[in-house]
Amino acid sequence: MNFICKCYLQKLFSILPNGEVHNYYFQKYITKKIPVDDRIFLARFKLAQYHFEKFAQYANPKTNEWSYYEFGSGWDLMNPIGLSLLGMKKLYCIDIKDLIFPDILADTIKRLYLLKDKMPFNYILPQRRELHSKSNCREALKDVFNIHYKAPIDARETGLADSSIDFIGSNNTFEHIPISDILPILLECHRILKANGIFSIAIDYGDHWSHFDSNISRYNFLKFSPRQWEKYNPSLHFQNRLRHKDYLELMAKANFRIVEETAAIPVEREFDSLKKMKINDYFTDNYSYEELAVKGSKIVLQKEA
User: Fold this and answer.
1) What would you measure as the largest C-alpha separation in the chain, in angstroms?
2) Which is nearest to 70 in space by CA: 183, 153, 12?
3) In angstroms, rounded to a whole number, what is the distance separating the alpha carbons of residues 107 and 150?
4) Which of 57, 94, 125, 197 could share a disulfide with 153, CB 3.0–4.6 Å?
5) pLDDT-derived band of residue 215, with 50, 70 and 90 as boundaries?
6) Are 178 and 280 a contacting pair, CB within 8 Å?
7) What's the CA gap between 294 and 151, in Å, rounded?
8) Distance CA 305, CA 255 (A)
């Protein structure tokens, strides 16, 4: 299935009632991208460990009664589950749509048993639970992992109290948020975070269609003008195409202090392939090739006292 067909199929799912459910079954039974393979599974928990270590490094927490918040937790909730296993006591997770599916959550828990010896950190195995409905999954998440999952919730207005959260995490979610919503979401995160609290973020700047097709470049979406990209950018697979410097500017506007940033720089072969591409004028007029080439980043923010 070529790139254009994939885009229009996702457009169809985006306009159908319960389109996220249709998309879920398509990813599970047709593309077979979910559940993820063991390599990705282990990498997701390693990233959860990274976020936890950044919290411990910069927040210097005095007790272990930490609260955690995450928006865009996705189908498998691996990041908050990993943070729960690492010691987070109360976790608030939201999504713009209800994306809990019992079979995926059950698969995640099952592999915590099967892959325990290969996991990047030690943990006490979670208790077994029968998972057969969305409400049952919510109960299990709360009882077993201290995860309070709510959806649909707008991340611009969480309803959480001012300065109530010790730690916020975000895993490859920002790139899927419309540009106009990013600053309001950052401001809401700043409002609910405690003084000196930590916000650890991972962002993928590549075209996510390349994850499904090796023939598609990670820079593929830079070929299209904003108007052209609207045709190929379904809401269920939305990509805002922002670059690293854009996010840094938005984070500064939200009054966060950037305490650490690591940009993923392409190897020479990748950079050469980008320079040979016909990049749309919108990007070449506003960014250098070096700025366009950055593949992703990990950024640690802090709310100053």
Assistant:
1) 55
2) 153
3) 21
4) 94
5) confident
6) no
7) 33
8) 11
Looking at residue 134, its amino acid is K
Please check whether residue 218 is in contact with residue 295, taking contact to mean a CB–CB distance below 8 angstroms. yes
190-214 confidence digits (pLDDT tens): 999 999 999 999 999 999 988 888 7
Residue 16 has pLDDT above 90, yes or no: no
Cis amide bond preceding 35, omega within 30: yes
Q: Which pairing describes strands 147-150 and 165-171: parallel, antiparallel, or unpaired?
A: unpaired
DSSP calls for the chain: --HHHHHHHHHHHHHSTTHHHHHHHHHHHTS--SSPPHHHHHHHHHHHHHHHHHHHHHH--SSS--EEEEE--TTT-HHHHHHHHHT-SEEEEE-SS----HHHHHHHHHHHHHTGGGSSS--PPPPP----SHHHHHHHHHHHH-EEEE-S--TT---PPTT-EEEEEEES-GGGS-HHHHHHHHHHHHHHEEEEEEEEEEEE-S-GGGGT-TTS-TTGGGGS-HHHHHHT--GGG------HHHHHHHHHHTT-EEEEEEEEPPPHHHHHHHHHS---HHHHTT--HHHHH--EEEEEEE---
- What are the DSSP calls for 174-217, one per residue? GGGS-HHHHHHHHHHHHHHEEEEEEEEEEEE-S-GGGGT-TTS-
pLDDT at 169: 97
Structural contact between residues 240 and 176, judged by C-beta atoms closer than 8 angstroms: yes
Kindly state the percentage of the chain with pLDDT values over 90.
Answer: 78
Given a contact cutoff of 8 angstroms between Cβ atoms, the answer to whether 35 and 75 are in contact is no
d(CA 305, CA 294): 32
